[in-house]
Each structure stands twice: as structure tokens, then as C-alpha cells.
Design goal:
By secondary structure, the protein is an all-alpha fold. The protein folds into two domains: about 30 residues, no CATH class; about 60 residues, no CATH class. The protein is built from four helices and no strands. The longest helix is centred in the C-terminal third of the chain and has 23 residues. The protein is elongated, with a radius of gyration of 19 Å. It starts with 16 loop residues before the first helix and ends with a helix. Bound molecules: zinc ion. The site of zinc ion has 8 residues, from loops.
Length: about 90
């Protein structure tokens, strides 16, 4: 197989292509939280995940660090889904 961004063969095809492709796939995995900040609700959700207070709390003395940020992101994503469902009714 050939991987066009392979740093070994530059896409000509080599035995590293598959490995490099796997690496690239991992690097491009979904980000933990995405937002367009296009509504007050989105800004509120973003604040809960990447707002200064949320980050300071997560990385503060009692914070859970990256795990806490991931958890906040999961909660915010869930809230967004629930809001969408409620707005349909
Ligand atoms: Zn290659």
C-alpha cells in the first residue's frame, strides 16, 4: 500500500507506509470538544470546557487535569445533544 504523506518514501510506496498511515490516523482522531461559538448556548458550553475557570479548576491543586477537561467536554457534548432534542419538541 502507499501513503501519500509517508516521510520515508514520499508516497512512492514502502514497507513503512502502513505504519505511517496508522500514525496519521491516530493524530487526526476527533478532538475532545468542538464548537463554532455561534450561539450564546455554545459559548456557555465552551466556557464549561475551555473557559478560564474550567481550565484553572482542572489543572489546579484539586483538579483532575486532562481527565477533568475530557469529562467536562463529555458533559458539555451531552448537554448540547439534550438541548437539541428539547428544541425539537
Ligand atoms: Zn512509504
Amino acid at each position: 500500500m502507499k501513503f501519500k504523506d509517508c516521510p520515508w518514501c514520499y508516497g512512492k510506496g514502502c514497507n513503512q507506509c502502513k505504519i505511517e498511515l496508522d500514525k496519521a490516523m491516530k493524530d487526526s482522531m476527533e478532538p475532545i470538544f468542538t464548537t463554532k461559538l455561534d450561539s450564546p448556548e455554545e459559548i456557555e458550553l465552551a466556557n464549561e470546557v475551555i473557559g478560564r475557570e474550567a481550565i484553572e479548576k482542572a489543572f489546579g491543586p484539586d483538579g483532575g487535569g486532562l481527565q477533568e477537561v475530557k469529562l467536562n467536554a463529555a458533559v458539555a457534548s451531552m448537554k448540547r445533544v439534550l438541548r437539541k432534542q428539547n428544541s425539537k419538541k
